[in-house]
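Worked example 2:
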Amino acid sequence: MLDARQTIEVFHLLFLRALGARVDKSLFSIKGGCNLRFFLRSIRYSEDMDLDIQTMAVGTLRNNVNRLLVEPAFVQALRTHGIELLKIAAPKQTETTQRWKLILRNTSSGADTPTKIEFSRRGLDDDRSIEPVDAAIIREYRLYPVIVQHYTVSAAMAQKVLALALREQIQSRDVFDLKLLIDAGGTAHPLPASAAARLEAAIENAMAVDYDAFAGQVLAYLQPEYQQHYRDKEVWAALQNDVVNSLWTLRS
């Protein structure tokens, strides 16, 4: 039986496979936490999925996604994994952002779980690759391979620095994710100018995140076997210190 986090993850993976069958894979790229989870083995589940898209009219993407979500083959694929799509809403459909909010029902437990899929229409960043999602995740859920375009470590690193610097409300997940990216070689190359200009703000915000924020925002989204380890305040403090020190080394 899938828990709430796994239910969302399976839905996201099935959605990506179905979208790639409808839309040229080179036109959209997965980013954020799902990118890190699906390609860098992050232990943090993502509640929502974010993508960038280019050269596609708002109406074309809206129609493609709306049809995909009710397509019998997609509905059956969800049902095979004990998931029912209970509610679909598309509250924001603009030239910059297209967002779908969904309610998933786990048919075994009867639990309802919200998730969101959001496309940013600001073009694609450089450093992308079309690859299969990590095989271990695919095996865990007994899925067919999912091949999708995603951002590489260098691009994801720059995006996370910008996110940490620019969010109205600082998110501890950005610090947690930066640790993964740094360990994956994210500091091996200079940041692009847009991220480098915000590096000081990112460092300041990284230092401002306390353990309580991490525990409240991130801990429940970690794979269960890692949650006890990260309940230790000293573990969080060491992670935070590593991120801050690594960001300092990127200053020009």
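Residues 4-22 form the longest helix (19 residues). The two ends are 50 Å apart (CA to CA).
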